[in-house]
């Protein structure tokens, strides 16, 4: 199950990104900040799942979460697709 191991550093870097699971992490907000020469910054406001807490005798899970800001620098040619039909 994604996120079975608890992770809790106060700050992660690009080096940590491949080991983090973003599966099922809700995005609450986003922003695009203008930068120089046509590049910008994409900022996502999320609740990062630190740990999946399986309820004994049940298929249900609870989650230990932490607020997270995911920032992508020097973004160009961004294409965004939103699907509200689900």
Task: Describe what you observe in this structure.
With 86 residues, this protein is an all-beta fold. It is built from no helices and three strands. Strands 1-2-3 form a three-stranded antiparallel sheet, with no helix packed on it. A hairpin with a 5-residue loop joins strand 1 and strand 2.
Topology overview:
Layout: E1 27-34, E2 40-54, E3 61-75
Antiparallel strand pairs: 1-2, 2-3
**C-alpha termini separation:** 23 Å
Average pLDDT: 83
* Structural class by sheet pairing and helices: mainly beta
**Approximate strand percentage:** 35-45%
Largest sheet: 3 strands, antiparallel
Number of strands: 3
Oligomer: single chain
* Uncertain segments: 1-5
- What is the general shape? extended
The spatial strand order of the largest sheet comes to: 1-2-3
Give the number of helices. Answer: 0
Helix content: under 10%
**Total number of domains:** 1
Q: What is the H/E string?
A: EEE
Relevant terms:
single chain; 86 residues; mainly beta; 3-stranded antiparallel beta sheet; 3 strands; disordered N terminus
């Amino acid at each position: 199950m994604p996120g079975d191991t608890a992770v809790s550093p106060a700050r992660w870097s690009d080096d940590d990104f491949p080991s983090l699971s973003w599966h099922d992490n809700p995005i609450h907000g986003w922003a695009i900040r203008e930068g120089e020469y046509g590049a910008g910054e994409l900022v996502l406001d999320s609740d990062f799942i630190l740990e999946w807490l399986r309820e004994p005798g049940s298929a249900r899970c609870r989650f230990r979460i932490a607020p997270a800001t995911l920032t992508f620098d020097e973004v160009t040619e961004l294409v965004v697709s939103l699907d509200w039909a689900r």
